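lol so apparently i was supposed to do this last week
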Amino acid sequence: MKRLLLVDDEPRVLRGLERSLFSLTDEWEIDTAEGGQQALQSLAAAPYDIVVSDMLMPGMTGAELLNEVMRLYPQTIRIVLSGHANNDLLMKCVGAVHQYLSKPCEPLVLLSTIERAFHLNDLLSNPDLRAFATRLRRLPSRPSLYTQILEALNTPDVEIDDIGRIVEKDIGMTSKLLNLANSAFVGLSHQVDSAREAVTYIGIDALKALVLSARIFEQFDNTSMGGLSATDLWRHCNATAAAAKLIATHEGAPRATADEAFTAGLLHDCGMLVIAGNLNARYADAIRQAADARQPIAEVEKQLWGTTHAEVGGYLMGLWGLPIPIVEAITFHHAPKAHRLPAFTPLTAVHVANTLISERLGSISGLSTSPIDHAYLAQLGISPDHIQHWRDLAESIPL
Ligand SMILES: [Fe+2]
Ligand SMILES: [Fe+2]
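anyway here it is w/ fe (ii) ion bound
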């Protein structure tokens, strides 16, 4: 039985929430807690898959509670349901929260968010994946620069210059940032030579994504990668991010969705690095096996370990507290049909961009390109003709 904990200081609100979720009580066990302390007691008694918390509560705020939940139970999915969308408090839990919802929340939106979260939690708690993850000793930790950026964004009146100043203290990251800002993809006609100026051009979301992916890549270098070229993978991920964002924008997706597609594109294959960096020679064998049999690497990984680099990457990014649509896009990028939402999401963009970019850039370490899942796209009402537009968009990215 899946377990959900609802937290709010107002009993009336809790009863309303329980009512709107009533149709699912056959499948889920729903408990309530009137405040943070009570919620922590319930969590200590038995684990929960999801916690949905109010923000403004006497005693312990929702931000304090969810930060504590992240520390003690990192695999629990954390959702905020708040009536104070722009409250400073909301900002205090950036990074500890997978999803924000604002009150009043349509019951259908609440239901579908929770179903989505459960589905993701289900997949990420697959015993093979958990067992495999415990074998990976070098599981990268969330970069402190990322946390510093989130914290700076929490302070009132923060300016983009302040964020630039934080990044500029990190020489390695500054050079990556300048590289990105001066890349053909951004398309500027003049040279950018300061971190502060670069942040203005690429934007905060792309900066956050860059900090995460650059740190993962830094931890694993080519020498220890068992046949996987980190340089090729870095190029592939950068181009996939750009293509995923272009596709999402072309489809009229909101700016936030396009930014999520970019972040997910940049991070979609981080699981490959993590596996290769840990298993070295054994991953080299898997790559050889996949290349010889012209089989997608994800299939070979599944046969060998019961899980894939997509799931390992999604698992790690889930632990780091990235938003649900990004974690979904990473987790399902080779198996989008397993994701049940029949709508265009960052997953759609990343799934297609991954293949189109592989076709264009060539294979990584001799691996064959994973095909586009036409049956999945047909479910979304997208015809094969339409994919040609996306292919043209991917072709337009300067590499
Ligand atoms: Fe992949
Ligand atoms: Fe990929």
